[in-house]
Amino acid sequence: MADNPSYYVEVANAQRYYEGQYICGDVFLSRRLKTQNRILSVLSDGMGHGVKANVLATLTAHMSINFAEEHKDASAIANIIMETLPVCSERHTSYSTFTIVDIANSSANILEYDNPECLIMRGGNIYEPEWEILQLDNIDHEGRSRTLRTCKFTPVKEDRIIYISDGVTQSGMGSDKWPFGWQRENYVNFVQQSILNDRYISAGKLAQRVVDMAHTNDNFNSKDDTSCGVIYFRDARELIIATGPPLDAAKDKEYVEKVRKFTGTKIVCGATTAEIFSREMNAEIKDNFTDMDPELPPSSSMQGVDLVTEGVLTLNKVESILNKMTPLSKEHGNGPADKIVSMLMAADKIHFLVGTRINQNHHQADMPVEIEIRRTLVNRIARLLEKKFIKDADVEYL
Q: Which CATH superfamily is 3-234 part of?
């Protein structure tokens, strides 16, 4: 995710596979470059479906995002990809297409090759940037397109960039309702109406709605891999996790005050930590037995805090769940660790406030390192959130 004085960038995608396939021929990749205040997102569509399409789309997506990260200009990126990708010997066309979205500071750059045209929404209205057509004269395969499109514009808060594979616009093709497919006009109207009906619809929800509608057009039997990515410029959702008592007990009040003044979602992890909060905030801790997990103590509630859980064991399971999840995972359990994961997924900016006093309850020789050393565990969770889920996570020690 990238920051701007007036907005935060949410990136999400949704997919549905060609009916009967267990792997998608469309590939999404997103990368957050924190030091450059930059987001890269790529959608590649491999020709056909199944493993072959996935392999070629994966190759294209990785090349695209790596070349874009190196700041190669649009023509250079396109030429390298086109010279590297094989051409179908029968159809004489490229094996995969791509869309690259590069957001840096207050600028958005889009490069498209043979994917449906990106849709840019400014609130509920369609925004039309100035597109430039690039011609690749050195591409010598007959039948392969030599034309790319690129544009650059300055996003404002409540802008959205929607990019899709042709499984969306071609959905319903051959049906009585959509004999020529859903096509761009109907897809655009659907997106526009979705935003007008829900002004603050999230990137993930909008992407899923588009894919679900395409699936409906196909009579719930997808005729192609169907993908939609959405980038949404909006206010940030923030979350803080306080875990572990401060190194110096004299800083307990300062520790609690940092969380009390925080304006987002608040989670406290650890029995000793919760006792400090209960004392300093004069708030009672109440056990909650509705979210039981046989591996963990139950969560608790406290006025002024959204969730209270046990500490290192629960965070250890949070890391395990995040490792197993994908960015498209929708279902979570109901245990304390699952609740934390759901709250993390709903947030954009996650701040970990880590006390560094040793908890003697866990300071045993036979305890795993990730449980004994809270800092190491929190750092691993923060890295997962940034690398795998494109969140903005930072850690503060006290």
A: PPM-type phosphatase domain (3.60.40.10)
For the entire predicted model, the pTM comes to 0.82
Strands 238-243 and 26-33: unpaired
Q: What are phi and psi of 396, to 5 degrees?
A: -120, 135
Domain definitions of the chain by residue range: 3-234, 238-397
Average pLDDT, whole number, for the chain?
88
Cβ atoms 131, 29 nearer than 8 A: no
Closest by CA position to 281, among listed 273, 289, 290, 270: 273
Q: Is 341 exposed, middle or buried (0-12, 13-18, 19+ CB in 10 A)?
A: buried
Return d(Cα 280, Cα 258) in angstroms, integer. 12
DSSP at 224: S
Beta bridge partners of 350: 239, 393
Interval 172-184 mean pLDDT: 95
Give the chain's largest Cα–Cα span.
76
Residue 8, beta-bridge partner list: 3, 234
